[in-house]
């Protein structure tokens, strides 16, 4: 069964809330991990919505951003490559 974009967004929201709980409890490594999952799922929801195709089984956020055609600011994009 394939997820709809709304399901990706729902799961991203859940993961973000989980990251907040982890952060409040000083579980910083897990908080960062859950943030990554939340962003990844949000990007996959955008991917499916914009391209009307299943998102790739990739975890690379830059790859997903580029495939979707998003244009982060140059400052933000360069910060990820440092």
How do the helices and strands line up, and which of them pair or pack?
Elements: H1 5-24, H2 28-51, H3 61-68, H4 74-81
Q: Name the structural class.
A: mainly alpha
**Percent helix range:** over 70%
**Count, helices:** 4
Number of beta strands:
0
Spatial shape = flat
- The N- to C-terminal Cα distance equals 38 Å
Instruction: Give the mean pLDDT.
Output: 91
Binned strand content: under 5%
Counting copies of identical and different chains, the oligomeric state is: single chain
Give the SSE string. Answer: HHHH
Q: Main sheet, how many strands, which sense, barrel?
A: none
User: Which radius of gyration do the C-alpha atoms yield?
Assistant: 14 Å
Number of domains: 1
Which stretches are low in confidence, meaning pLDDT under 50 for 5 or more residues running? none
Question: Could you characterize what this model shows?
Answer:
- The protein is an all-alpha fold and 82 residues long.
- It has one domain (5-81).
- Helices cover 73% and strands 0% of the residues.
- It contains four helices and no strands.
- It has helices at 5-24, 28-51, 61-68, 74-81.
- Helix 1 (5-24) packs antiparallel against helix 2 and helix 2 (28-51) packs parallel to helix 3.
- The termini are far apart.
- The mean pLDDT is 91.
């Amino acid at each position: 069964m394939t997820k709809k974009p709304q399901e990706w967004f729902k799961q991203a929201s859940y993961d973000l809330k989980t990251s907040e709980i982890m952060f409040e409890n000083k579980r910083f490594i897990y908080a960062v991990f859950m943030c990554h999952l939340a962003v990844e799922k949000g990007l996959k929801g955008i991917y499916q919505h914009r391209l009307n195709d299943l998102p790739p089984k990739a975890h690379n956020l830059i790859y997903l951003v580029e495939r979707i055609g998003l244009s982060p600011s140059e400052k933000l994009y360069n910060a990820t490559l440092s």
